[in-house]
Amino acid sequence: MAAVKTADPAVRCIAAAIDEPNAARAYGPEVRWRIRQGDRESYRGAARAINESSADVVNLQHEFGIYGLWRDGVYEDHCVPLLEELTKPVITTLHTVLPKPEPQIREVVRRIADRSTRIVVMAETAAHLLADVYGVARRPVVIPHGMPAIVPHGRHRLKRQLGMEQRTILSTFGLVDPRKGLEYMIAAMPAVLARHPNVLYLIVGQTHPELLKKEGERYRNELVAQIETANMADHVRFVNQYLTQREIVDYLLATDVYVTPYLDLNQITSGTLAYALGAGKAIVSTRYLHAAEALADGRGLLVDVRDSAGLAQAVLAILGDGALKAELERRAYQYGKEMAWPNVGRRVLALTHEVLDRTTQLSGGAPQPALEPVEADAPVHSA
After folding, report:
1. pLDDT tens column, 101-128
2. Among 22, 111, 219, 248, which residue has the fewest nearby CB atoms (within 10 Å)?
């Protein structure tokens, strides 16, 4: 929303937020409506309210865990009911496109595509999957996962600020849960330390809130035990706190090698990987879908899942070869800077105008008058 408004300050954005069960978050004035997660009628009611509003275009961000839930092995979808009620043009961004979906998931995605004016995905791989696996005929628009516009300088200064001036820093960012494969990078550390004893591996982020509700800090405690057993308390450190975007960027800029040892090979987007590319980092990653595409053409090093030896080998290759490290950083930044929010905001705005213009042409004239005054040439988004 901020990036779109930066691209055109005349644009107005209003939002429908989804509250988890038994939660009532304190939102700002941009949130006009609330949806109760898991309540099908609440999604329909929000759609009817949006229809009566001044919104010109609806921008829907779809994730399975937000717009549906599993009950006894059956996926109960709440996105299609919302789309069935909406009469406004809809741009739907699919955050997850599974390469081997169960039949019911495939059908849900097809129905979402059928009821959306345009579909957006964040990677070319996802666009191919929609055509080849889901049978979605119309090609989606590829707009990458956004990230801040970062100038990749200041590594030594930021290390000083963080009290890590004499350390070589590896890092992994994001919500902590077992799918991240952090134990495999921890297991790779002894081999790395044997050649670079000043290395510090930072695991930056809080435990995933859903995991915290179900299991508490069991996974993090297992990692702590693994670190202590290997006598690596001085070489693996948790930053277990909520960080602002600025703080995340500072940690990234201080990093020498960024690592994503993720276990889910079907992961089609990773915001933290996008950030690392935008910061111009030398990256080591497992071969999940987003990484395989983003790190192609010499933009990073890929290793197999659950391969601690491979992770160590890749990290050591970068730390032992300054020219390789510099080239990986250069290529990552050249690719990543296209994903900066200013560029993404302009592309989303251009697509919004395209949809609005096309809707006007199909309706045979000007858009229907809004119930509230809207600035001329200023589309109103409902996020």
Report:
1. 999 999 999 999 999 999 999 999 999 9
2. 22
For the chain, the three-class secondary structure string (H helix, E strand, C coil) is CHHHHHHCCCCEEEEEEEECCCCCCCCCCCEEEEEECCCHHHHHHHHHHHHCCCCCEEEEEECCCCCEEEECCEEEECHHHHHHHCCCCEEEEECCCCCCCCHHHHHHHHHHHHCCCEEEECCHHHHHHHHHCCCCCCCCEECCCCECCCCCCCHHHHHHHCCCCCCEEEEEECCECHHHCHHHHHHHHHHHHHHCCCEEEEEECCECHHHHHHHCCHHHHHHHHHHHHCCCCCCEEEECCCCCHHHHHHHHHHCCEEEECCCCCCCCCCHHHHHHHHCCCEEEEECCHHHHHHCCCCCCEEECCCCHHHHHHHHHHHHCCHHHHHHHHHHHHHHHHHHEHHHHHHHHHHHHHHHHHHHHHHCCCCCCCCCCCCCCCCCEEEC
Cβ neighbors of 61 (< 8 A, separation 6 or more) are 93, 95, 383
Give domain 155-338's CATH superfamily.
Answer: Glycogen Phosphorylase B; (3.40.50.2000)
Q: In the chain, where are the structural domains located?
A: 2-146+340-382, 155-338
Q: pLDDT (tens digit, 9 = 90+) per residue, 234-259?
A: 999 999 998 888 999 999 999 999 99
Q: For position 20, what pLDDT does the model report?
A: 85
| Fold (CATH) for 2-146+340-382 | Rossmann fold (3.40.50)
Q: Are the C-beta atoms of residues 283 and 301 closer than 8 Å to each other?
A: yes
pTM assigned to the model:
0.84
Return the number of other C-beta atoms located less than 10 Å from residue 322's C-beta: 9
CB atoms within 10 A of CB 174: 19
